[in-house]
Amino acid sequence: MLTSLRRDVAAVRQRDPAARSDVEVVLCYPGLHAVWGHRLAHRLWLDGHRLAGRLVSVVVRAWTSVDIHPGATIGPGLFIDHAIGVVIGETAVIGTDVTIYQGVTLGGTSLEPGKRHPTVEDRVTIGAGAKVLGPVTIGAGSRIGANAVVVRDVPPDSVVVGVPGQVIARSRPRTATSALDVDDGLLPDLVGVTLGALQRQVDELEHEIGGRVRVPEIRPDESGVWRGEDFSI
What domains are defined for the chain? Predict the structure, then answer.
């Protein structure tokens, strides 16, 4: 247990540049408090003290704004950054060195007993506001983009964006020693790419027929900024 607690602290130090010392992490990080509270509640749950486990989880939820069911299985090195609004269901399974940001839900889609919640394998990063729903498996080393909604299995070493989540294979596979990728600005814009391809096709067709009076275009410039008088704020 002591080794696991130390690893939890180390995970925060490694993945949050704002963490300046172990003492600061232990005293000031609600995500860490939520993980530690869950480890106690989970032990009570496994030992058959189900009500006591639920009571501990209720206290931890009120203290940290993180709702983790005591039946959930969480591996070492979980880092919940900012913590607010995270929900992890009863049958969820989380592997080693997983990173979860605020507003994430690992939820169920069924009222039937049994496995109802996601399995998140090792070294997965789940962006702010993302929802992973149902007994799906998120493969090791994958990244779930902010606000994505995942309702189907994700292969290892993938990126998921959008609603519903679209799975994208990484062009540069990651290893167990790769640095955490948290830059949402690098996530692909599938809708934008698709619309851009359609616009180019329309441009080519108009060029072929020639002589057609074109309607003024409303599209972003090269810097990606939209401009137009009809965009009233």
Answer: 2-181 (2.160.10.10)
